[in-house]
Amino acid sequence: MKKQDLPQDPGALDKFTREVCYVKNDEGKYETALSKGWDVKKQALDSAWQEVNERVEEARKAVANGEKSPVYYFMELRLMDLPVLSGYTGIFPFFIKRHFKPSVFKGLSERKLEKYARAFDITVSELKNFKG
Amino acid sequence: MNIDSQTDEFHHLQTAHCENGVTTALLRYHGLDFMTEPLAFGMGSGLFYIQIPFLTVNNGPAISFRTMPGAIFKRTCKSLGVEVTRKKFSNPADAEAFLDQKVREGVPVGCQVGVFHLTYFPKEYRFHFNAHNLIVFGEEDGRYQISDPVMEDVTSLSKEELSRVRFAQGPLAPKGHIYFPEKIKPITQDMIRKGIVSGIRRNVRDMLSIPGNFAGVNGIRHTSNHVRKWRDKLGLRKASLYLGQIVRMQEEIGTGGGGFRFLYGAFLEEAAAYLQDDRVSNISEDFTKAGDMWRASAIKMAGVYKGRLTEQKDFEEIADMMLDIRLVEKEAFQKLSSLKLGK
Known about the structure:
The complex is a heterodimer. Chain A is 53% helix and 9% strand. Chain A is built from seven helices and two strands. In chain A, strands 1-2 form a two-stranded antiparallel sheet. The model of chain A has no long low-confidence stretch (mean pLDDT 94). In chain B, helix 7 (217-234) runs antiparallel to helix 8 (236-251), helix 7 (217-234) packs antiparallel against helix 11 (312-338) and helix 9 packs antiparallel against helix 10 (278-305). Chain B starts with a strand and ends in a 5-residue tail after the last helix. Chain B has helices spanning 18-29, 37-43, 71-79, 92-105, 159-166, 189-208, 217-234, 236-251, 261-275, 278-305, 312-338, and strands at residues 2-5, 11-14, 47-57, 60-66, 83-87, 109-113, 132-140, 143-147, 155-158, 178-183. Chain B has eleven helices and ten strands. The radius of gyration of chain B is 21 Å and the shape is globular. Helices cover 51% and strands 17% of the residues of chain B. Classes of the chains: A mainly alpha, B alpha+beta. Chains A and B meet through strand 1, strand 2, helix 1 and helix 3 of A and helix 8, helix 9 and helix 10 of B.
């Protein structure tokens, strides 16, 4: 990539930092240059977020319809999957899957609810009272 | 590369990639002024390609254009005879106590962190990715002074904030991983040349002769075969998300553009000067070409996830582009191999 071809499309990094890229200067030698971003990858990031938001919305509906427990919704909201949530709570994935069921969720001990709430960065009552 | 003086001793260094940056800045702090990002990347045999089978990351294929986390620091230090200390902890309090002791001694240290809770990162970038690296180089008003290599300037984190990201959970959980050079002997030009040669040879081996079909140059063909099937197998929507994931692994902040290929080209250019060997700088051009081809394929993939390209033939074209890239990279590494450097 030639230095003059380096894209400068403002994206999510705009107010954060510019990034170092390796480009060819006029003498055909490598040097570094700072880029504000590139539309091609901005759109890749945007479509990934669009997907996340749709998953969260589906999870919210599932809770509202009584199909899933709030644990499932907050897992999606925090971009987690089973291994990650298991890491933060210390609860095995097999049990987490069971806690997705509203009927099982209702009977969860205060201690388990606290573990989930801490992993999701919310209070226990926010977790318990989420209705979708 | 921008060099800003931050304290009397430690200099913040902005680089394309975080681990290269930490390695370079720490070695420079210890007096190895010749160290640059491309050199650290090449000596550490940083270039790679792999599509890890059966694993999905953020609901997409697990593809990497670089070697495994931690390898660049380890290999580069080892090839220069630099002794390093690396520690992991099971208990956050122990990890913090150890870090505080190093800060009191005035030793800058590298830390592996997760980015999901990294407060100064923009929200759009905060996925559960646990192989980010930064340097802690001091403490001021109860906050750690942080040099994050992907940022233009230094920043700071509170004790709680740093402890949280050092104990991020999930794949590649850092477990408080802390590392720094311990003892450095005088380095001769000859040692640098040897380090460069062994870095190149290891990279040739990794890309050309690694067993299995999903890593090295053959890994590119592996992904190419997948791309052909994605549209029918996953549906257009999911297939385009998968392509988006490839582009992000390839071009996002930290790669220097073109899936680290430009960075490797820059390394070979520097290597040619050290080795006084024009053949090496000619091969540098091949990697520039490969990087440009990766970027061209990214533009094509963007056409798909923007919804402009929807046909199977578009996926076929992308897959063919990847096969062409594979050939260019394979030939380049074969040329590097046939130079018989260091023999």
